[in-house]
Amino acid sequence: MAFPRTRLRRLRQSEAMRRLVSGTRLSAEDFVYPLFTCPGTGEKRPIESMSGCFHFSADLIGAEAAEVASLQIPAVLLFGLPERKDPTGSEAWSDNSAVAIAIKQIKQTAPELLVITDVCLCAYTNHGHCGVIKDGKVDNDSTCELLGKTAVAHARAGADIVAPSDMMDGRVGVIREALDSAGFVDVAVMAYSAKYASAFYGPFRDAAESAPSFGDRKTYQMDFGNPRQAMTEIALDIEEGADIVMVKPALPYLDIICRAKQRFDVPIAAYNVSGEFMCINAAADAGYMDRQGAILETLLSVKRAGADIIITYFAKTAAKMLRK
Ligand code: PBG
Questions:
Q1: Ligand 1 centroid to 63 CA: how many Å?
Q2: Pocket lining: 204 vs ligand 1, CB cutoff 6 Å
Q3: CA proximity to 294, closest of 284, 286, 304, 302
C-alpha cells in the first residue's frame, strides 16, 4: 500500500483529526510541581536563577499548594533550606526543619495534594555534598543511615512519598527498612534511580545553595556515557523496595527513559530539571522560540519516551495551557 493510495496527510488535515490519532497526550495529572521552602515567616523570595520560582516560608506555602491542587496537578516535590548548615547536614532530619513544617501546612490547606519530599543532605551540609565526608570522600554507608532518619522525619511530618536523590548505594533499602520499623509502611519511595552527573542542575544549585565546595558529584551521580548502569541502578532500587523510579535529567536522557519503560513494570518518573527549564525560558525571553510551543513539545517528548510522571517547573504553566 503505497502512494497514491496511502496518503499520511489525510490524518493531519485538521486539529480534530490530529488529536484523534496522536497517541500521546499530556495532562495536568502527569505532572509533579517542585516547591522550595525556607525557614522564617512572610517569605516569598524569588529564586533568581529560576524564572517564576520562589522560596516560600511555611506560612505562605499553603496558598501556593492550594493553587497547584486547583490545577489538577496531583503532587508537589518539596525541597528545603536549613537555618544552619553543618558537616553532617543534621537539620535534614529535624522535626522542626522548614520541610517538616511546610508538609504540615500543605496538608492543612490542600489535603488532597500528595507531598513528595526530596531526601538528600546537599542543601544541609556546609560542604554541599550529598553525604558525609570521611577521609576526603563521600562516605556511603554512614550517609545511608542519615538518609533513613531524614525519610522517617518527613514521614512523621506527613509526607506521602519520600524521594532520595543522593545516589548512595543501598539507600533505598535502608530507607524502606527505616520507614517500616517506624511504622510508616504506607509511605512510598520514589527513587532518583538513574540520576546523572549533569550540568543541567546549575540553576537549582543556586536555588538550594548546594553546589559542592570542593570536587564534583561524579563519584556518586552517574556517568552520562553509561546507559547500562542506569538499568542496573533501577533494577537494584526496585529490588530494595522503590515504588517509583526516576530518570534525571529528562531531555538529554530520553533514551534512558525509553529503555526503562520497556524493561520495568513500575511507574517511571522523569525530572525535567532546572537547566532544561531555563534553556527554554532564556531562549523564549530572547525571542528565539515560542515559549508555549517549546514547553508542550518538550513535556510531550518526555511522556512519549515513556515517562508516567513528569516532574517539571513548567507544571503550573503547562496545566493552564492544557486547560484551554
Ligand atoms: C539534590 C538534588 C539536585 C536536584 C534535585 N535534587 C541537585 C544536585 O544533585 O546537584 C536537581 C534539580 C534540578 O536541577 O532541577 N541532590
A1: 25
A2: yes
A3: 284
